[in-house]
Amino acid sequence: MEFEESGIGEECGVFGCVAAGEWPTQLEVAQILTLGLVALQHRGQESAGIVTSNGSTPPTYTTLKGMGLVSTAFKPEDLLKLKYGNLGIGHTRYSTTGISELQNCQPFVVDTLHGKIAVAHNGELVNAAALRKKVMRHGVGLSTSSDSELITQLLALTPPMEEVDTPDWVARIKNLMTETPTSYSLLVMHKDVIYAVRDPYGNRPLSIGRLVPISKLHSAVERIVDAESSPVSVHRYHREVQPGEIVQISKHGIKSLSVVPRPEGDPPAFCIFEYVYFARPDSIFEGQMVYTVRQRCGRQLAIEAPTDADVVSTVPESATPAALGYAQESGLPYVEVLCKNRYVGRTFIQPNTRLRQLGVAKKFGALTDNFAGKRVVLIDDSIVRGNTISPIIKLLKEAGATEVHIRVASPPIRFPCYMGINIPTKEELIANKPEFEDIAGYIGATSVRYLSVEGLVAAVQGGIESCGEKEQISSRTKMSKRIGHCTACLTGKYPVELEW
Amino acid sequence: MEFEESGIGEECGVFGCVAAGEWPTQLEVAQILTLGLVALQHRGQESAGIVTSNGSTPPTYTTLKGMGLVSTAFKPEDLLKLKYGNLGIGHTRYSTTGISELQNCQPFVVDTLHGKIAVAHNGELVNAAALRKKVMRHGVGLSTSSDSELITQLLALTPPMEEVDTPDWVARIKNLMTETPTSYSLLVMHKDVIYAVRDPYGNRPLSIGRLVPISKLHSAVERIVDAESSPVSVHRYHREVQPGEIVQISKHGIKSLSVVPRPEGDPPAFCIFEYVYFARPDSIFEGQMVYTVRQRCGRQLAIEAPTDADVVSTVPESATPAALGYAQESGLPYVEVLCKNRYVGRTFIQPNTRLRQLGVAKKFGALTDNFAGKRVVLIDDSIVRGNTISPIIKLLKEAGATEVHIRVASPPIRFPCYMGINIPTKEELIANKPEFEDIAGYIGATSVRYLSVEGLVAAVQGGIESCGEKEQISSRTKMSKRIGHCTACLTGKYPVELEW
Amino acid sequence: MEFEESGIGEECGVFGCVAAGEWPTQLEVAQILTLGLVALQHRGQESAGIVTSNGSTPPTYTTLKGMGLVSTAFKPEDLLKLKYGNLGIGHTRYSTTGISELQNCQPFVVDTLHGKIAVAHNGELVNAAALRKKVMRHGVGLSTSSDSELITQLLALTPPMEEVDTPDWVARIKNLMTETPTSYSLLVMHKDVIYAVRDPYGNRPLSIGRLVPISKLHSAVERIVDAESSPVSVHRYHREVQPGEIVQISKHGIKSLSVVPRPEGDPPAFCIFEYVYFARPDSIFEGQMVYTVRQRCGRQLAIEAPTDADVVSTVPESATPAALGYAQESGLPYVEVLCKNRYVGRTFIQPNTRLRQLGVAKKFGALTDNFAGKRVVLIDDSIVRGNTISPIIKLLKEAGATEVHIRVASPPIRFPCYMGINIPTKEELIANKPEFEDIAGYIGATSVRYLSVEGLVAAVQGGIESCGEKEQISSRTKMSKRIGHCTACLTGKYPVELEW
Amino acid sequence: MEFEESGIGEECGVFGCVAAGEWPTQLEVAQILTLGLVALQHRGQESAGIVTSNGSTPPTYTTLKGMGLVSTAFKPEDLLKLKYGNLGIGHTRYSTTGISELQNCQPFVVDTLHGKIAVAHNGELVNAAALRKKVMRHGVGLSTSSDSELITQLLALTPPMEEVDTPDWVARIKNLMTETPTSYSLLVMHKDVIYAVRDPYGNRPLSIGRLVPISKLHSAVERIVDAESSPVSVHRYHREVQPGEIVQISKHGIKSLSVVPRPEGDPPAFCIFEYVYFARPDSIFEGQMVYTVRQRCGRQLAIEAPTDADVVSTVPESATPAALGYAQESGLPYVEVLCKNRYVGRTFIQPNTRLRQLGVAKKFGALTDNFAGKRVVLIDDSIVRGNTISPIIKLLKEAGATEVHIRVASPPIRFPCYMGINIPTKEELIANKPEFEDIAGYIGATSVRYLSVEGLVAAVQGGIESCGEKEQISSRTKMSKRIGHCTACLTGKYPVELEW
């Protein structure tokens, strides 16, 4: 719901699980997949899907798909049908609505000359148009506009099926990776193996872990691969799949098969907005917890944009770590000024009425005692279209705030993303509108300041200039060699040249 | 519901419609398609789908699909989305249930190098396994087990897309027809044209008509193509698509493009069970009304299996024409002995109880006055598994019938169908069970007699020996040359050699 | 659906069942009630409800209610909750739609000083307004506009609860019957007993039967009471509850407790439209099968309104017995001219289009061979608003009928019903419109004739003048003393004076 | 969901709204009621209902009810039907599940001799059993077990309807209030007026406000009455209905009609758990914001139960104000240690597996960086059954917390509530179990301390001993005279003697 309001959204979440130990297993692979998808629900609420395999020769695959949240998409009786899987992959998909969208729901399963494969994909192929043409020129009809179907057909296509005796899916995956540089985090399931693949630029996240053994009765250890490290909190984070890496996950263990390199000189390009906005705060990327990065953003923001005010607060809940960081760095007291009604946003109210104008206001209540008669610094994580912060400011002022200073813990979004993030059109972005000239006046704030691109990169790449912790921005130069980030939506500099 | 009980069922119904006159039209193509599918509902209740095209360059296709009856599958608000179509095709699908079956729902739409095509298919390709292998050998992944997806990929495949400038869909369809002899009635929509295709054996029905102009405000005449001639009763029957024929239907008219011949010496093989069971009684095949054929079956049955009885009656509603024919021929009075509760069969009653035994009984009430103390000839259209007629006989006897003679207006089904009809396994067919030896004893009837295969063919092919109408069985020899029928499920003689 | 079109409808169906033998019983009371309601579904499709009692002291009642058909209203898991009932009553309710109508769904259960009673009611109290005022004057608030809630409060009210030690429900029911003369067929369940009550005029039907023992394992015999004799076809008809009678049904048997008399000189007034239209053809009222009465109506119609024509046919399915009777009496051959699409009427088509005009046409297909070039007598059971027969006539004429003579097996409806039947307003009834002057011209028929009131009463009351059966109309004089009928909707003569 | 876990829950929320200005109004009364119920959703998720009146003579009432959350219960098309209301009342109901519970859904509407009234009720009548008997002795049948139906019948009953010419609802309400002392907050709508009633002990909250005028086009000011002050954030808090007060709300304004007194010497008894747990933090009771009271509870807890630790944190989200208060008072830094997955808890997972044990764990992710290697004070608002905190402690310890001290910002719950709060049985309450002896050991905490009853009362009644703010506990003596609170669930001392 927040996503709808802000207008930006992750495309997808992917999750895989292999039961270790003897097969057929008593372990609840389908249920773990379901829990994993619930934990990734923030990455896609349009539809959900699971494919399990029993891992035998030939394998039996079972598919479960549905529209909406995981809780809506899967009925309890459906889950029972999946219970004999020994491994499986799952997918949650982001928003675009439509009548017959179930056909776009992943994972995709296709039958090939060498058996069935199932594919779940997070990301967006930058050269999709050219690849579609290539596949269709070969005489293949494509039934959806989804990159994931395109990927399955590309995997089936080369090398020619008829010329090989065994499928060699790894070679096919490598071949795919040479045809398209980014962006994808990919799970390919074939019989008893899951291949976890991350594009050479590492644009989308993918990490590997294992399920904590719960008791002696269940000594087996499942291997888990997912979009973020946190999905199941009993998931023990192991490591990330490296940019360009193909990792094979089977009941025998985790094995790195290959690393497809980037063009010489190109740095990696992990999406910096994963830190700013998309990921759960307890997820770990590049060795650091997202929450901590967000807190650093807040501290950096306090350095860049100090405010003469009485209290610091947050637009709950995503901006809270940045707000606490700002409070820490600035020395101003942290208080809560808004309480959220979590039931709001699900009710059907006739549009085009004045009630619509109350949309955000009713979502939040003002905790008046904490700020009446005071100057408030309100931290938000990002401002995309500028239509959600405005009623909040109005609410605070009416409830007695003498000043409301907006401090945004990320730079303005100005450019479209072609790598899997749904961003409003350039025209819709507040940063590209004439109103941005006087953004404070437009949204009714006393003042508005954004974090700089350099500040964001510094906070992400580990250092901030702070008297407290002595972390140095200078340290980021060294760091950037190994962990470069994609800032295209902020700077317009895309990691690869775009084909049109 | 009847289908579930009898255990045999048509695979599918197909329906197409092109608005004549100026485009964009005000004519309700989507609504006519919906009505057409409702009229074909008896041919498939699992799912329903519609694809409309606006017919422009490039065309915009809109798809609507759903599980269950047309009334369940399409919501009113969904239909609105289709309203600007100028032509379209639709499909109803028969029974096999499963979790994610929506993906099997037709029509299939695929994007090819030369644009999108939509395909709706009724039938079953006898050499599907070989064709699947061929397509997959080419490097294509198949995402369903459906013949219809296979057909779309075959159409995309040959001749190679890259070697031609224009699609020439007709050549591709012809090529498909040479690769697979039967069975299919096919609608292929491309931009502003529908190709109506019937396999060279003419196994599945397909006819062409036009919508009656309703008023002067709507002087345009839509062209209609559908599985049966009767779907919309305002549909004016024009003619059948001939075996092997490709007919192009556009706003400019109906044009026969080609007829792909059968192997020399092979007669056509239109499914004889369309007459016996599947089709609506008001449909017209081969120039004759189904109702009339069924009535002839009843008269032929009266000749072959006369009965010393007091009254003739029917198992409503499908056997009524045969019963009236039997009454006419035999001179026995026709009465109704059963009344049907049309709400039965939709309620969830716990299985495995004695209530289950009452299943059929409660579906019918006995009209005691009409047969108490009398000898009844009860006509049924077919006996497949023998489990539905038995409780009816019991009901009649308990209500006072002194004798109940079962006369079946078709021969026993003994063999599987590989051409699109869902028939129980050989083991389930009563005609293959030991109990068939004493079928009368098994079902509790005073006597049981079936129509002979020769008698059925005679009735279908136009002649019966009857004092009343002087139609001659001998006339059928001549007729059979042009209108041979598939009787494989009765005789085991399939129209083509089966590949395994 | 037919009801919607014709615009007349029964208000309700009631059904009760008591398990005989030892309690707790293994017999499936809830399931038998469900089957009973399905069999009464034609008497009400708006909602369905069941209340079961375990019969102990104090009793536990379990309630199940839902909107729509029985199959929609009751989920399988819900039925399980009722499974331990030893007796129960059920109700199906007719049409008036609305948002919060579930609260009008019967049976009503109320808690009184002397325990809970459950009430199911078919009919309409002619003096409801006065009774409501009386109850409210006593200080009772009424939460619905339903007569059934009114009945429960009336039962609770007199004699004053506080003045009696035991409830004496029979005295309370008798008291109710003196306060309101008609119309009601009532089931009152209290603990381990069902009281079956019919108003002194016998306006609504109610009959008693028993469930056929199925096997030795189930030797117990349930007692059944229901609106019609036919609901469960395994129901063995025992007898009708007499006008004014209170029958007690318990596991110990069936016991007539009392008969409350009508005012001296008043004949009984069983609704004659039960025979004409509402009841199932296999039901038995007053010792005669409804089907047979309808057939007699057809024969009487043939005598009153003979036609110079070639064939006789029916508007399926309800007019078929009358059509067969007409054919028998007239000597004209009976054929089928229309086939029905039973899926039609459930699809959402946008209104206000020309497609709406096709409404009825698409519901029926023409069996052209049977009447093309012929003069058709088409029998209908009733014409209420005249808007459904017109498109049928058009269809037949367009398909080749040279003449279409409409013969209606009942007289024109001219007056409203205040005793439980939903009839269109006087203005909507075709018989009250100017168009009725030239009804044949209005509906496009060659000629139109109705059965006379006298003819209908004759057919119902047992005699028709016919060469075949020599039953004498004169015999009805004698008969009418014991079995008078309400013909108010045809004649305007109501059985009791109406209060306003 | 939280409620399910903790096992305690408010019974209901009530909300009313009267449009000021000219009638018929263009103001969206039904939509404001809907928003109001959404804002009260935390007070009841079982069902929701709205009744609007057009206010004319006689009034037309329209009712909308449904099961589940407001968003599920009301369809957009349903809301349209309510749009012409000029005033209305609404209700959300808490949890007890069942098949036919829609009939328990409020508001109740009953028709009386003096017209219809609608009643919405929050609370539970302590002498309900005696009142039911009284009503039934009068000859009234009660169709539900709900206190609200009982209230409507009590209102209808006395004084006798027949003896008065005008209803005088206020006299009837006063009469009701003398018959039952507590607990109820009641809205009674009659024609064009809402009576807002609070029981003499003021046990349940009820406050009055007005809707902020949005623009000049909508200059009218609606009057609003609701369970809490905060429901619609555009609601301007005006004042609380006083204990025993009857307030009349009409388009002409707000008018206090009467105050029914408590027995001499009895203090008021507002439910103290409204502050601790039920109410939204932005609500205002007795002139103070709930958030601020909770913060004071945290500070008082820091005084009563200081801890030698490194960081203070919260079980999000309800304990956050107390945690911030504890941090403030103790000087320990406040950090977040848990992040919540708000999608968890809605998925169907097969029970009885080890996955069930993971229930809470997966609901929270650990923000490891903030507490690894540290001693954590974790503040919770209450511990009811002790089964939710245990897995959280385990999660924190596994993630590196060296010590986890639980501090509970309310005293242990030991006694049942008979005034409208659903509390687990005495046996289920952890405070009554043997395990409570070593509660820290039982739940795995390093230490556990609760706030004292005196401390809670002090915090609620305005003073805490704190170096910072110098608010004095001593001040509460004075305060308690006017604002006594019900602490029965903590102390067993009920405000009135209970009848059994």
UniProtKB/TrEMBL annotation, chains A, B, C, D:
CDD domains: GPATase_N, PRTases_typeI. Its EC number is 2.4.2.14. Keywords: 4Fe-4S, Glutamine amidotransferase, Glycosyltransferase, Iron, Iron-sulfur, Magnesium, Metal-binding, Purine biosynthesis, Transferase. InterPro entries: GATase_2_dom, Ntn_hydrolases_N, PRTase-like, PRTase_dom, PurF, PurF_N. The active site is at 12 (nucleophile). The gene is PPAT. Catalyzes the formation of phosphoribosylamine from phosphoribosylpyrophosphate (PRPP) and glutamine. Its cofactor is [4Fe-4S] cluster; Mg(2+). Pathway: Purine metabolism; IMP biosynthesis via de novo pathway; N(1)-(5-phospho-D-ribosyl)glycinamide from 5-phospho-alpha-D-ribose 1-diphosphate: step 1/2. The lineage of its organism: Eukaryota, Metazoa, Chordata, Craniata, Vertebrata. [4Fe-4S] cluster binds at residues 271, 417, 486, 489. GO terms for molecular function: 4 iron, 4 sulfur cluster binding; amidophosphoribosyltransferase activity; metal ion binding. It comes from the Eukaryota. PANTHER family: AMIDOPHOSPHORIBOSYLTRANSFERASE (PTHR11907). In the C-terminal section; belongs to the purine/pyrimidine phosphoribosyltransferase family. This is Amidophosphoribosyltransferase. Pfam families: GATase_6, Pribosyltran. Gene3D superfamilies: 3.40.50.2020, Glutamine Phosphoribosylpyrophosphate, subunit 1, domain 1 (3.60.20.10). PROSITE patterns: GATASE_TYPE_2. GO terms for biological process: purine nucleobase biosynthetic process; purine nucleotide biosynthetic process. Binds 1 [4Fe-4S] cluster per subunit. Residues 12-252 form the Glutamine amidotransferase type-2 domain. Mg(2+) binds at residues 318, 380-381. It catalyses: 5-phospho-beta-D-ribosylamine + L-glutamate + diphosphate = 5-phospho-alpha-D-ribose 1-diphosphate + L-glutamine + H2O.
